[in-house]
Amino acid sequence: MGTGGVSFPLEMKSVIAMNDYLGSIFEKYLHAKKIFKNKEVLRHSYTPKELPHRKEQIEELAHILVPVLRGETPSNVFVYGKTGTGKTVTIKFVTEELKRISEKYQVPVEVIYINCEIVDTQYRVLANIVNYFKGESGVEVPLVGWPTDEVYARLREVIDARERFVIIVLDEIDKLIKKSGDDILYSLTRINTELGRAKVSIIGISNDLKFKEYLDARVLSSLSEEEVVFPPYDANQLRDILMQRARDAFNEGVLDDAVVPLCAALAAREHGDARRALDLLRVAGEIAEREGASKVTEHHVRLAQDKIEQDTMEEVIKTLPLHSKILLYSVVLLDENGELPANTGDVYSVYKKVCDYLDIEPLTQRRVSDLINELDMLGIINAKVVSKGRYGRTKEIRLNVTPHKVKKIFGADDQLRPLLTLNLSGQRRLV
DNA sequence: TGTCCACTGGAAGGGAGGGCTT
DNA sequence: AAGCCCTCCCTTCCAGTGGACA
Predict the structure, then answer these.
(1) What's the pLDDT tens digit per position in A51-84?
(2) Is the same domain home to A274 and A141?
(3) Which residues contact A300 (CB under 8 A, 6 or more apart)?
(4) Do the Cβ atoms of A114 and A128 come closer than 8 Å?
């Protein structure tokens, strides 16, 4: 537009400037070398065609399940291993393979996969199983409402409708048992005695090794007829896994040599969690892509590590129930006043004042004590039970996140924003 | 050595909120 | 509409406890 005497009105000028700007953004991304070939490969839900370093477990499971093909009921199986050791993906791989082969031998097999972290009550597990067959039986159980006995009766009916093998996979089974007891396992492990045509076997997956203690002896003996253990991956094994996925996920030459080993090493430090390793690799790639970089470097992995930690913590705090948020804010106030570590009584009295300020009815100390434990479990605060002798037994409470971060998150929350004005001066009155 | 503090954490149960059947 | 049922969140009650202090 130079000096030609043409003068655009001000708005027009800024539109042109904006267009230039946008254009350059698009061009930047357009000309940046494409990092990902197929990002899906790095997702947790993806089942790869090969599972490195799990051959032993696959063969063990195949050995346990092979009676199906001969028309015999396989043993129930208990699968152990920490998070990210490939339990779920291996089970899915093996059961899919079993289904495929069983068609060849004309043995009908149904595999029902239930994640007990989501489906975490006896009723819902039974309902899920019944609903799995709703296509053929026409029976659908609502999410709540029916008596559990009724659901169980329907379950027997729909499963026994024809001759077949039904394999029920209960992932994160420890969550279910801790929450609703082992009655359901008791019924499920005995169901075969009540069935005429169908045969049921159960695969329980758990990452809590101690969880067997919660089980009744009879349930335990029938459920853990067979056990398969998934040891954590070491850094070398993680590297192989990442290498295999990286080949399909990234374009050639975009990964710096140090990236995969670094992701593997960082994840190996966290008890050999392959999920974590895959997340690191994916997020590092995304960061590089956003930067318009042509290569993913070690630097991107470090950024990814920070980002993952930040994101999970932020998400956890954002989704806390109201009273947990108020409680957390009480700890923040104490921290800003230099009064941490504080004990339960101190935190509770600040909490009551904050509730008062917000015109919200406070919960009892008993309940708050549980909320403190929950925040501790989530890693947001630290609560250690200590005895102060004559001065009683209480929890010593510390903050595990920066007050700044909590305030930032609460600033976006309409109900809690008023709390932010409780700055140091207001707080002195409060505490 | 016994006392006693400031809680902890288990147990039981209530009621609101969701949904069902009849 | 009435009568069930299940789950979740919460209260009430209370026995139990580690260790400083007298």
Answers:
(1) 889 999 999 999 999 999 998 989 999 998 888 8
(2) no
(3) A259, A284, A285, A287, A288, A291, A293
(4) yes
- For A138, A152, A239, A414, the CA distances from A122, given in Å and listed in that order, are 22, 10, 39, 37
| Closest alpha carbon to A159 in A182, A180, A131, A125 | A131
Angle between helices A259-269 and A298-318 (to 10 degrees): 40
Query: CATH number for the domain including A302?
Result: 1.10.8.60
Q: A272 is in which domain, residue-wise? A: 251-313
Interatomic separation, CA of residue A371 and C1' of nucleotide B11, rounded (Å): 18
> Is residue A176 a part of any domain in this protein?
yes
Quote the pTM value.
Answer: 0.73
CA atom of A367 to C1′ atom of B17, Å: 20
Write down the mean pLDDT value for chain A.
85
A369 CA from B4 C1′ (Å): 22
CB proximity A5–strand C (7 Å threshold): no
Q: Write out which nucleotides of chain C lie closer than 7 A to a protein Cβ.
A: 4-14, 16-21
Question: What pLDDT does residue A33 have?
Answer: 62
Of A294, A313, A332, which residue is a domain's last? A313
Q: Which residue has the tokens 């207001």?
A: A426
Give the residue whose CA sits closest to B10 at C1': A366
